[in-house]
Give the backbone structure.
Amino acid sequence: MNDTDSTAVIRVQPTAQPLRVAVLGAGAGGAAACVELTLAGHAVVLWNRSAQALMPFIGTGCVQYEGVLGLGEARPVLITDKIDTAVRGADLILVCLPTLSHAPIARALATIGSRVPVVLNPGHTGGALEFAHAYCTTATSLGSDSTPPPIAEFNTLTYVCRKYHPARVTITGRAQALRAAALPGGESALALGQIVYDCAQTVPDVLYTSLANLNMTLHAPCAILGAAWIEATQGDFTFYVQGMTPGVARVMSALDAERLAVGRAFGHELLGVAAEMQRVGTVDASVTDTNDLATAIASGDANKKIRAPDSLSHRYYREDFGHGLVPFIALAQAAGVATPVAESLLRLGETLTGEPFSQQGRTAATMGIEGLGLEALRARVTTG
């Protein structure tokens, strides 16, 4: 599949401030980041825990790409599965990994004593909080300095992308605007993140970025209400078009209302799911009624092509329930906001998959916010 035939190509402008960036993760998101940052003139090191996943890139010495960034090959300065080698001499660590990998990466960086600023692209929901907590607890156990490195996060992945071939990434969309925030002490990470992504716009705190993560709202209702179809067809339908019936859209709207209410409790007026997607660029700019979720979401060219999960073990379940709904409910409880739709979807997801997301996901304890109320949590994340 070559998207360059039907998609306007975004020309990447050379940077005036080249950095050495360690991109952690060689999946679609990390490969796409490697491409854009290399095209911009940054010195990119591509790391992945699994050497096997790196072998197609090592074999060619490059990351092949197609789509909105054009068609070609991007050559990182180094491809490695050794994390200490990857981050040595780096100005910035860009974590482009599934949310389940955030805590293990934080522990690995604490073990080698890395102090390089970190940007989570994306942090999903509660990513920066969990990353900092995992780093601190690991460093403490090792008798090391438990102060975390500078940490910032984006609310969503910069790209709509897939790896249909082991050595090539297909990039069908690139965010026009990102929400970005840092934990206290993470201002340098935020500044570096904005050098590599000038579309990253600062918001007050990581509660804002966490609650502006839309994957939970987008994926959980469709994943539950489309589960029979997913199992029957192994995902042979379009998730955001055929899977977005009026009934699904009503559940999504109710879940989104809970997300907005939690944001409001923390002092943040967030955009609704379709309006935020329009800002990012994944809902067409011509859409005037962003409350009509089914029509608005299906309008995005990138959304139209996304297939449904092929099984109940897909990341839309493993990631967006345990590391989306679970931390969202924890934040809601700290804010004193009821979330019956989110809690119902979580219970159904646990029953449907047989996975104990509530115990194994991103909990208040793993985020280091257990027992905190609204004001204490706001104080924890407030910079300056």
Remarks:
- The chain has 19 helices and twelve strands.
- The two ends are 48 Å apart (CA to CA).
